Task: inverse folding
């Protein structure tokens, strides 16, 4: 690789540049794929650069860059950077070639991107194709020649192969070629009987009908001796594959039955566990006693009292200067309180009730029982000595 080849040194930048040239339609599509070969400086046999041509290209592209800077014309980013760096910076041989190609293609001159200029062997592929096509027989003439050969065959027999008609391609693999190639080796013609084979497919019969055209009975017998064993082998392989397939299906069905049986047992156990756990569940709609509002810190009393009233609060916090961060109002205390939220709140929203961490949901009956027990305990403490009171309180 030669030093300073723009194509081989930075492939990623070159691909981005070609993509942008294609987008802005600077170089037409038939020629865009030949730019890499045209600018590559690694090639041994490459055209020499004309310095006058390079100077003209630089002057022309400088005007385009100036028009881009004044926003008269808009160029893609990578293309603009390449032109600016090549004109103002150090420009190697590969970049000079690309600048000349851009200058020529802008003036609709594509002679440096043609195959004759890039390649040292002119029109080699076209010459080879023409030589091949000279000796090629046209398809119409070929069909007529085949018809004449078929008519010249004296023996015309129909044979039945013991295999399904869908297995013809596997039979081709077994005889190392299709019927046309097989017939060319044995000097005969083989044709499938489409109507009879279609009936075999519909009725699921293992019979394939083939029409054989040959010159004598000996060649016919040779063809039959080759086709019959191959057809039996192909059909036997297909039967074995089908047998294994159905065995696997039976195994899958038995596994599914076992899984269904286990699923029924597990669902019964799961239902029993769920019903047992539901008995111990608490009521979802009990009153959250001891809770408070997350916004204004108001304690929860009852749903009827707190349902219609709005919540006035400060969404921010109290800074070191003693002011609320949300509205810059002065706070009476250093800690947020319900009174501070209620009197000087700057936002209004519905209450957001939350249960206190130290409290839990209690039924009304349990609350009444608990209060009665506390009253009885206080009476006992008031009417006894200090030691007994300590024992009652569990201290």
Result:
């Amino acid at each position: 690789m030669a030093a300073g080849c723009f194509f081989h040194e930075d492939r990623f930048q070159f691909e981005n540049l070609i993509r942008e040239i294609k987008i802005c339609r600077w170089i037409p599509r038939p020629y865009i794929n030949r730019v890499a070969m045209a600018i590559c400086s690694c090639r041994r046999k490459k055209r020499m650069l004309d310095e006058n041509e390079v100077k003209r290209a630089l002057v022309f592209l400088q005007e385009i860059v100036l028009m881009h800077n004044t926003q008269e014309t808009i160029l893609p980013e990578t293309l603009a950077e390449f032109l600016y760096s090549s004109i103002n910076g150090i420009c190697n041989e590969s970049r000079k070639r690309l600048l000349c190609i851009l200058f020529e293609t802008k003036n609709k001159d594509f002679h440096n991107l043609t195959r004759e200029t890039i390649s040292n062997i002119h029109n080699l592929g076209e010459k080879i194709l023409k030589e091949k096509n000279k000796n090629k027989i046209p398809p119409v003439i070929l069909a007529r020649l085949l018809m004449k050969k078929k008519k010249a065959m004296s023996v015309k027999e129909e044979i039945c192969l013991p295999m399904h008609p869908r297995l013809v391609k596997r039979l081709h693999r077994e005889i190392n070629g299709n019927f046309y190639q097989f017939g060319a080796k044995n000097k005969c013609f083989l044709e499938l009987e489409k109507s009879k084979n279609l009936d075999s497919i519909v009725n699921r019969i293992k019979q394939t009908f083939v029409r054989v055209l040959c010159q004598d009975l000996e060649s016919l017998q040779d063809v039959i001796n080759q086709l019959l064993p191959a057809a039996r082998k192909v059909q036997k392989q297909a039967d074995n594959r089908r047998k294994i397939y159905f065995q696997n299906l039976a195994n899958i069905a038995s596994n599914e039955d076992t899984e269904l049986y286990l699923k029924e047992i597990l669902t019964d156990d799961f239902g029993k566990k769920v019903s047992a756990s539901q008995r111990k569940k608490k009521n979802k709609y009990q009153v959250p006693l001891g809770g408070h509002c997350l916004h204004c810190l108001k304690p929860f009393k009852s749903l009827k009292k707190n349902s219609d009233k709005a919540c006035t609060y400060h969404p921010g916090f109290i800074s070191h200067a003693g002011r609320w961060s949300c509205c810059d109002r002065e706070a009476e205390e250093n800690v947020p309180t319900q009174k501070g939220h209620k009197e000087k709140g700057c936002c209004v929203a519905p209450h957001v009730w939350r249960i206190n961490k130290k409290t839990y949901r209690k039924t009304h009956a349990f609350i009444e029982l608990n209060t009665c027990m506390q009253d009885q305990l206080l009476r006992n403490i008031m009417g006894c000595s200090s030691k007994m009171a300590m024992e009652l309180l569990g201290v």
In short: The mean pLDDT is 75. The chain has 18 helices and seven strands. The chain has four domains: 6-122, 151-241, 285-359, 364-393. Residues 151-241 form a domain with the Ribosomal Protein S8; Chain: A, domain 1 fold (CATH 3.30.1370).
